[in-house]
Each structure stands twice: as structure tokens, then as C-alpha cells.
Amino acid sequence: DDPMRIALAQMNPTVGDIAGNARKIGRFVDEAKQGGARLVVFGELAMVGYPPKDLLLMPQFIEDARAALHRVAAGVSGIDVIVGYPEKNAGPGRPLHNAVALLRDGKVASRHFKTLLPTYDVFDETRYFEPGPPDEPNSIAEIASTPVGLSICEDLWNDERLIGRQLYHENPIADLSAAGASILVNASASPFVVDKHAFRIRLFGEQVRRYGRPLVYVNQVGGNDELVFDGNSMVFDARGEVIAQAKDFEEDLLIAEVGEGAPGGRR
Predict the structure, then answer these.
(1) pLDDT in tens, 133-170
(2) Residues pairing with 245 in the sheet
(3) Residue 15 in contact with residue 52, Cβ under 8 Å?
(4) Is 241 a catalytic residue?
(5) How many angstroms separate the CA atoms of 189 and 84, rounded?
């Protein structure tokens, strides 16, 4: 397989400014396309900013986010886009899913839901979101005839050997690998803590080595209330080595070749 050119759109969204975030997403998409990327990936809930907290309880807010998603999708051609947003839950349970959409050729091609919802430290996701079913086959997206496994933030953090105990019953990364993903993509909003970047490299590298799949990890950047997000989006090759890394604490668009035979490095 040829490597895929993937853009990591490390963005500083403003919580609640859906129109402004959508415009910014559009600009990043254009820039990624100009850079020859086949796929551009945004962070977790990029359309609304993270953490949106009780804005998620307002029906109009969810409608506005959905409308903005379709507006952005309408302008997409010649590149695939993965962007985070809140999606209504059609089934039982809490009213929303923490989702990413795959935008392609002017439309929302598919939606994929976060499985592991953190409720510790600064996170309170089970207040708003229903987890995606762990056995859901739709977390694989075909992009340029490559099966890409999509996960959201915490889905990547269930390594009992490094965290000290298994926090969850499911391991979405194991599931994606078993379902045939040849590239793993993780849309994140991972707040900065001292030494966390080094821990991420160890944790993600370990997961990647365990499953032998390259990983694209995209984090948001900027400050929201008491949280600061450090960016440091990364690409790991299948051996668990970091082959490309975005800036820390500022917006960035990192374009990397990902997959078999991919060289490392920034654009």
C-alpha cells in the first residue's frame, strides 16, 4: 500500500462559537487540500470547542452545530475530512453522542461515536453523552481504499499496564485493529498537565506497538476556563516511533505521510 498524506489540523476552537469554529475548520480544510493531503483530521468536538459543558443541554446549540457541520460538508471536495461534533442519540440513554463525522464530496458520509466516556478529574462526559456501542462496525472508514479506524480521545487511554488498572470493559483500539483498520486516527481534546506529553508518547507508542498500526493523534490547542490544551499532535509509525509532531501551544497544520513505506518529518 502507498502511504496516505494526512493533515493534522491542530486548532484553537472557541467554546460555543459554532459559526467561528466552522469558518476556521473551512480554512484548515482548504490549506490541507492545497498541501496535497488526502485526509484532514480535526480534534474532539472541534465544531463546538471542548469542553462545551451545559451548552450541550440546549437543543438549539445541538441544532446549530449540526447545521454548521452540513455547511462545512457542502464545501468539501477532493479531500476527506474528519471533524468532531455532538450528535443526537436516536436510541435509549443520554441524549447525545460524542461523535466525529467523515465529510466527503459535499456530504456527511458517515458518523462514528466515542466509546469510552471519562468521568474523572476534569471530565464529566456521562452527564451528556451515551457511549457508542463497543461492537459497532462503523468505526472503520474506507479512505482512499484504506480501512481507517476512528476513535475519540479517551478511547486510546485504556492500557491497564501503563495506567495501573483497566479503567473500562472495552478496548476500542483492540476492536479497531481486529476489525481490520490499517491506520488508527484519534481525535482528541487532551488537557495539558506537567509531564503529560511524555506520558502520552509512552502510552500511545505502547498501544501502537501492541497492534502494529500507525496512529494519527490530533489534539486541540488553547485555553478554556481552567483548562489549557497543549496541541502536540503526533503521528506514530507502526513501530510506535513518533515520525511527525505539531507545535505545542499554538495552532498548526501538520502534513505527514502515514502508512507503509512512509518517511518521517514535517511538511
Answers:
(1) 755 556 899 999 999 999 999 898 877 777 777 778 88
(2) 234
(3) yes
(4) no
(5) 10
Threshold 0.70, pTM exceeds: yes
Q: Is 87 a catalytic site residue?
A: no
Reply yes or no on whether the pLDDT at 266 is more than 50: no
Catalytic (active site) residue 114: yes
Rounded Cα–Cα distance for residues 192 and 159 (Å): 20
DSSP code per residue over 178-222: HTT-SEEEEE---B--TTHHHHHHHHHHHHHHHHT--EEEE--EE
> Looking at 24, 87, 114, 154, which residue is catalytic?
114
Q: In the 8-state DSSP scheme, what is residue 137?
A: G
Contact 58, 18 (CB under 8 A): no
Catalytic residue among 24, 87, 130, 153: 153
What distance in Å separates the CA atoms of residue 74 and residue 77, rounded to the nearest whole number? Answer: 8
Angle 233-238-240 (CA atoms, 0-180°, nearest 5)? 60
Q: Which of 204, 209, 195 is nearest to 162 (CA)?
A: 204
The residue whose grid cell reads 442519540 is: 89
DSSP 141-177: EEETTEEEEEEEGGGG---HHHHSS--SS--HHHHHH
What is the C-alpha to C-alpha distance for residues 14 and 18, in angstroms, rounded to an integer?
8
What's the mean pLDDT in 104-122?
Answer: 94
Which of 24, 44, 125, 257 is labelled catalytic?
44
Distance, CA of 257 to CA of 38 (rounded, Å): 10
